[in-house]
Design the sequence.
């Protein structure tokens, strides 16, 4: 059994543990490539401006760096050795050369299917809403229609009564209001000279 030590006073790392760490870092490299493909598909769909692309690129690399370091902390206590870097690079290279194209097509297909499913759910919800609210619309129509018609009838009757009243009482009412205005003005403008 091959044993490699970290240094004085540190527990030895066996070759099996190193191989296990290498395989996990290979998996981390593959998952990082997939995460980058997700970001690429999102960027192609959104089409941000130049600064948006720069910001998105920066954020995805920060995310991948933090996620990779967190995974390395779990796998081998955050120790970065040559086989760890080799596993990360090899995993990303394998993903980008063999799986990137099919994975991106799969991502696009999933997004397309999810969008169709969302449209179907929205259409179903709209139909369900119409079915549920239809009895209430009928009830409102049945109760409101007579009230609306009565209001129209009263409005029409009121306009006709108003026209008839203006014909009958129009001239005397105009004379009365004119006389009242003249009296009102004479009370308050008595001591002032008329405007020139």
Sequence:
């Amino acid at each position: 059994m091959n044993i490699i030590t970290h240094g004085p006073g540190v527990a030895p790392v066996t070759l099996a543990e190193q191989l296990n760490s290498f395989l996990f870092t290979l998996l981390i490299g593959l998952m990082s490539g997939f995460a980058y493909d997700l970001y690429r598909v999102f960027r192609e769909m959104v089409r941000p401006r130049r600064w948006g692309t720069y910001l998105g690129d920066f954020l995805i690399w920060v995310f991948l760096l933090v996620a990779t370091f967190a995974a390395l902390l779990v796998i081998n206590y955050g120790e970065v050795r040559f086989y760890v870097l080799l596993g990360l690079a090899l995993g990303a290279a394998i993903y980008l050369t063999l799986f990137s194209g099919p994975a991106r097509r799969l991502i696009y297909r999933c997004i397309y299917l999810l969008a169709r499913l969302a449209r179907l759910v929205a259409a179903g919800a709209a139909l369900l809403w119409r079915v549920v609210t239809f009895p209430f619309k009928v009830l409102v129509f049945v109760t409101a229609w007579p009230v609306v018609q009565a209001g129209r009838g009263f409005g029409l009757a009121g306009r006709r009564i108003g026209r008839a009243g203006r014909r009958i009482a129009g001239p005397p009412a105009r004379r009365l209001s004119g006389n009242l205005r003249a009296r009102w003005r004479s009370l308050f403008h008595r001591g002032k000279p008329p405007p020139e």
About this structure: The two ends are 123 Å apart (CA to CA).
